[in-house]
Amino acid sequence: MLDPKILMMFFTTSVLLALAPGPDNLFVMTQAAQQGRKAGLLVTLGLCTGLLFHTAAVTFGLAALFKASAVAFTTLKLAGAAYLLYLAWLSFRADTTNGPDAPTVSLAPAALYRRGIIMNITNPKVSIFFLAFLPQFADPAKGSLAAQFLLLGGIFIIATILVFGAISILAGVFGEHFRKSAFARKMLNRAAAGIFAGLALKLALANR
Prior knowledge:
The chain is mainly alpha-helical. The protein has helices at about 5-20, 25-35, 35-60, 60-70, 70-95, 110-120, 125-135, 145-180, 180-205. It has one domain. α4 (about 60-70) packs across α5 and α5 packs antiparallel against α9.
């Protein structure tokens, strides 16, 4: 079992990493601003479900494949970029399909949850980050490395839920004022489309 001080240090580091501006928290903020805090929370749960995949990838060696194989890395990142461009297109045209008094986007909870999962697992850089990050806090002398990686991954997920949950609530409150105006909704959609397109470009150009 890892030392509680090591676990607390890992949790603190994870919180700081979740707070640092990045694709995932920007994605959550945008969704919450567009569709409300509930949407942001559902996307957060989806993203954290995706983190289970990346934790397993490190535990069972799949992350090493993404790091070693240019084909696997490129295939996954381009799939993620294509999905983000699709979201950009949906946001761009949302105001032309909704009535003047309708919410910006109407998505079922399951769709929002899936959106978070897809966004996360199609970013191979997360697995590679975990591959570099988790072993720094593991200790072979403390028992099974696989069990330690799973524990650390779980702590990272808890930290992410806390931080992204707070972002969802704040962005949801902020976005509520904009969603009351048809013009503001249109501008919010355009901004979201630009953010998604920018994230897609960043992911498509990412190196291992």
